[in-house]
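Entry for the shared binder. Reason: the reviewer on the internal report wants the predicted structure included alongside the sequence.
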Amino acid sequence: MKSRQTKMTKRNGAVNPLQELESLRAELAAARGERSRVASAPAPLAEAEERIDAWIAACGAEWQPAVGYFASAEGGAGSFRLGLPARGIADPLRAAEAQTCALHGDSVRRALLERAEQHLAQHEPGLPEAQRAERLAQLDANLERFEREEEELVRQLEAEGAAVQRRPDAPPGILLSATVTTSGGLVDYSRPRLAHLRELARAAHAALLNVTERRDAQRLETRRLEQDLEDGKRDVRSNVLLRVNPALERQVEKQREELARLEAELAEAEATWRAARQLEDAVLQWLAAHGSDPRVPDPHLARTVYRRA
């Protein structure tokens, strides 16, 4: 397979595929952050004002007091309740809101608009609704392009024998794609994508078991030597002519360092395994949601063809 650097410009001075993957994922994280900011930014004041007006109008329209009571044959003083309509609203608080909006809508509008202005003075408003939707569509397209390039680069690294881990939140639809583009066109990956992801999860679990076994053995050895050292110190306290074995002290310190290293390796292996399992689960859920039997992935679904922009 030809190197990815022959197909596209290197990112931020990356000199090898692993560095380029790291740079690409940094761009992807930045793009996701921008999308989150655009999606969660407050609406502009004009849009907030329109929403306030719409809410006051809808709420006030719900207030419909039973004024027919006064024209009825049995109508009389003492039975009519202005704030509790005979029909429409069962919740007394909602009924009070409806009455307030119907009778004092202008005052409610001024109060809400003032609060909206205060809020937007502290939080920069975002794009209007139509422009926000257009911008989000652009950002989603960019994210998909980044994610497809990421998967292509991961597959290249796998083909070259590099140990590389996929993000647990990578899109299942892209992971299940059976083809990627190269400078020579489309290359078909014969190995089923789901089976490949499961193989990665099994390998991560096997690595986790291996590190756990080595850590446990190291822990036992460290504890044995620590006990020997403690016994020696106890003998020294009871006999001033004895001295603690310095070689044993150095050995214990070395064993503790090795144990700490294995603990760190175990934490990394566990994180890798959990990420692989999370990714596998996400793919299975995606397949189920798209009408495929998770146990036997639809070969047509797993052969989505895409081209890089």
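Summary line for the report: The radius of gyration is 34 Å.
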